[in-house]
Amino acid sequence: MKYAPDMAYLMATMEKLINTPSPTGYYVKMKPVIEELAAELGYTVTYDNRNTAYITVPGADTTKTVCISAHADTLGLMVRGINADGTLRVRPLGGVHFVSTEGENVTLHTREGKSFTGMMICNHHSSHAYDDAKTMERNENTVCVLLDEPVKSAADVRALGIGHGDYVSIDPRFTVTENGYIKSRFIDNKAAMAISFATLKHLREAGKQPKCNTVFAFSFYEEIGLGGVYVPLEISEFISVDISILGPDADGSDRAVTICAKDASMPYDYELTNHLIDTAKRAGCDYAVDLFYRYGSDASQAIKGGNNVRAGLFGMGVYASHGVERTHKDGIENTARLMLSYVLGE
After folding, report:
1. Catalytic residue among 222, 223, 237, 325
2. Topology of the domain covering 7-74+186-344
3. To the nearest 10°, the Cα dihedral for 183, 188, 191, 192?
4. What average pLDDT is seen over the chain?
5. Is-catalytic flag, 112?
6. pTM of the model
């Protein structure tokens, strides 16, 4: 059956999630948003000790429990030092491409709950002042945070309450074109989160029940390879919904959903992957099957963590991962149709 997800709700939810800072390990702003979205649909949220959020929906078959995982964390930065001129040295949280951060606006989040804005600049930031401004490699040793504050020294910065270990989130620059292209940081993986909530909305409003007990999970450590290492014991089937990579050999596109047969470390479960392919066909999805190079997910992390689950993965095609990414509303919609069809077992 070909479902029609509420795309207006999905897109609005995605924008809200994308604009909520959640660099890896920084869950304080995202958790209230997850709770608010769940409450609006009549669901409750529980957490484990790692602050993974769970929304559990009872199924027709209560003997089996499956998990839909859409990680809530994004790439980000953490303050590792304060320079003598008041700029900040940072370390990446996840696979940050520093060359793509130069010139971006950022927000610094202190441990006391204060926020300060700033921008990312190269140490040799101007070709009018530095001979190597264009050629200097951009990395964590050459790119820093310039605060939007009248600071001239490390002491000035510390007087604001800023210190080592503070989080830095990068502004996403969410944009949707008239013909449906979505350009933003953190489509990875706020798009999949929004698709999960659109699925929950459909279940509630249509009065439908999942085929089996279904747990929607939102983890906060995927970008550093730790999101799915713990899985509740009752779960036997673990599906990650995440971005799909477009690159050499890829058969997918940003207007389709891609089912991953293998990532950088392992093939996904043979029968479960076949089931996802068959489900995509029945749901009338524009889909592809691909292998992902230099890629992992909460599902592969779940296997590495020793959990007794079958693992699968699918998601919308995305260009320019870990930078300002691009996908299309059609890819989002195809992914939403596959998720809902899988959950309903139709």
Report:
1. 222
2. Aminopeptidase (3.40.630)
3. 160
4. 97
5. no
6. 0.97
